[in-house]
């Protein structure tokens, strides 16, 4: 598994304001912004501000951070008015899952019926 240099990491650059994004949440080391290619009416990416390559690279010390990301997802689902209709929180990890950006991110998707299982 390769390690990505922060200066070359797209999401670190969004975090640092070097690449524009529609940021909708930033608190306690957690950042959320709208996906540039939304796959549902609501498609938000929630990331740790610190660079972690993938879920597989998290450590026990990241448990609180991971919890805050999940709580941010629940809060944003409410704010985006998809709490009642339903939503999905997805992490792609590694090639078979199609992880394209090597900075841990959670996809919050909602606003339409989502198929299962994923293709
Ligand atoms: P994944 O395939 O799980 O790695 O997801 C990467 C996501 O990042 C995709 O849904 C992309 O549409 C999204 N993405 C790529 N570039 C940007 C960007 N500049 N701003 C916001 N989202 C992006
Ligand atoms: Zn990064």
Could you walk me through the main structural features you see in this protein, from its secondary elements to its overall organization?
It is a single chain. The chain is an alpha+beta fold and 119 residues long. The protein is 19% helix and 22% strand. The chain has 2 helices and 5 strands. It has a 5-stranded antiparallel beta sheet, with helices on one face. A hairpin with a 7-residue loop joins strand 2 and strand 3. The longest helix has 17 residues. The model has no long low-confidence stretch (mean pLDDT 96). Bound molecules: adenosine monophosphate (AMP) and zinc ion. The site of zinc ion has 6 residues, from helix 1.
- Provide the spatial order of strands within the biggest beta sheet: 1-2-3-5-4
Kindly state the mean pLDDT as a whole number? 96
What is the chain-wise order of helices and strands?
Answer: HEEEHEE
- Protein structure class: alpha+beta
The portion of residues forming beta strands comes to 15-25%
Low-pLDDT segments, ≥5 res: none
How far do the termini sit from each other?
24 Å
């Amino acid at each position: 598994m390769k390690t990505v240099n922060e200066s070359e990491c797209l999401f670190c650059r969004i975090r640092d304001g070097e690449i524009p994004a529609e940021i909708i949440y930033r608190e306690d080391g957690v950042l959320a912004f709208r996906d540039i290619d939304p796959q549902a009416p609501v498609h938000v990416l929630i990331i740790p501000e610190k660079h972690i390559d993938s879920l597989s690279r998290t450590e026990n010390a990241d448990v609180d951070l991971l919890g805050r990301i999940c709580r941010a997802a629940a809060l944003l689902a409410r704010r985006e008015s998809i709490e009642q209709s339903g939503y999905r929180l997805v992490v792609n990890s590694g090639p078979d899952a199609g992880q394209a950006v090597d900075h841990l991110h959670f996809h919050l998707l909602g606003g339409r019926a989502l198929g299962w299982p994923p293709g």
